[in-house]
Amino acid sequence: MAKEFSRIDESLKGFIGDQAVFFVATAPSDGGRINLSPKGYRDTFAVLDDRTIAYLDLFGSGVEFPGLLAHFGGQHAGIRAAIVVDLERIADACGFAVAYYELVDERPVLDAHHDKASDDAYVRLADRNRHSIDGLPALEADHPLPRSRA
């Protein structure tokens, strides 16, 4: 059964850190598409404190966030932004009917795609990602989008 928590304690932080995938759902406030996206790379999600999480949004919009990058394990091409979420409710959900899975490995397809793209193709991809699928403007980048992984 589902349980509500007052904060992210060490046990929850450990559980979250062990996950290889997370999901983000967004919807424009004035109607449009609801977008539920699976996200990956373990080093793109971080617990900042007991009521705040953040994740690296890969490719598209951008903002300055060098202070937050220390919370993440790796560097990926096309980091758009660090999305910080202040949590109002922390709860697990009944997963009684959810199948067990075994992680084989992280899929390197996104990093490989960015690494092999020509500079012109990379710029075109970045420009195309400056708007959502509904045409909403992305955050304005005031830093260059990272080109390669460290």
Q: Can you summarize this structure?
A:
The chain has helices at 10-17, 66-69, 109-116, 119-128; strands at residues 4-5, 22-26, 35-39, 45-49, 52-58, 79-86, 90-91.
Question: What would you note in describing this structure?
Answer:
This protein is α+β, with helices and mostly antiparallel strands and 150 residues long. It has one domain. Helix content is 20%, strand content 23%. The protein is built from four helices and seven strands; from the N terminus they run E-H-E-E-E-E-H-E-E-H-H. A three-stranded antiparallel β-sheet has the order 4-5-6. Strands 1-7 form a two-stranded antiparallel sheet. A two-stranded antiparallel sheet has the order 2-3. The relative contact order is 0.21. The model has no long low-confidence stretch (mean pLDDT 80).
